[in-house]
Amino acid sequence: MAFFKSTYNILVRPDMDEVFNENDMNNPNSLGVPPKKDWDYARELQIEDVDIWEVLYERGGGFGVYASWSPYAEFYMIRTGFVSDIVGVGIETYYGPTAEKQVYKRATELGMSLVLNQIWVEPEDMWLYQKPEEPKKLILP
Asked: Which residues contact 82 (CB under 8 A, 6 or more apart)?
C-alpha cells in the first residue's frame, strides 16, 4: 500500500499523520490514492510547488525519500535528518531525466533501501527516463 504526505507533514510537522481519506477505503474498486495532476515542465519544479508526496522510504530521525505526487513529475526529495545544532537538516532534491537513478544511488549511499518497480511510461513521456545526450564536441586542429 502506498503512503502519502503533504510537504507540511514532512518538513514542519513530521509527527502528524499522512494524507489519508478514510472514504477511499469504502470503494473496493479504488486504490485509495489521492488525486494527482501532471506537471507541465514549463519550469523547474520546486519543493514549494508540491502539495502531496508519495513516501518511498521513511525511518526515524527525519530520514526519508519522497516522490512528487501532486503535481506528478520526475521530482524527488531526500531528507537526511532533523534540524539540530550538531547535524543540521539535509534536504536534497532531484529533478528531470535520470532523477530516479540519481535518487536510487544517493539513497543507497545513505543506507536507505528502495524497492524497485516497473512502471508504464507513455511514449510521449519517455524523454523523462532517458539520459540526456552529451553535446557533441568539435575539435579543431
From this structure: 14, 61, 62, 89
Residue 75, beta-bridge partner list = 95
Interatomic CA distance for residues 72 and 90, integer angstroms: 23
Q: DSSP of 26-38, one letter per residue?
A: G-TT--------B
Report how many domains make up the chain: 1
pTM, to two decimals: 0.77
Q: Is residue 134 part of a domain?
A: no
Q: What grid cell was written down for 59? A: 525511518
Say if residue 104 is exposed, middle or buried (CB neighbours under 10 Å; 0-12, 13-18, 19+): middle
10 Å Cβ neighbour count for 95? 17
Q: pLDDT tens digits, residue range 54-93? A: 999 998 888 899 999 999 999 999 998 765 544 445 889 9
Number of neighbouring beta carbons within 10 Å of residue 99: 19
User: Is 140 inside any structural domain?
Assistant: no
- β-pair partners for 57: 65
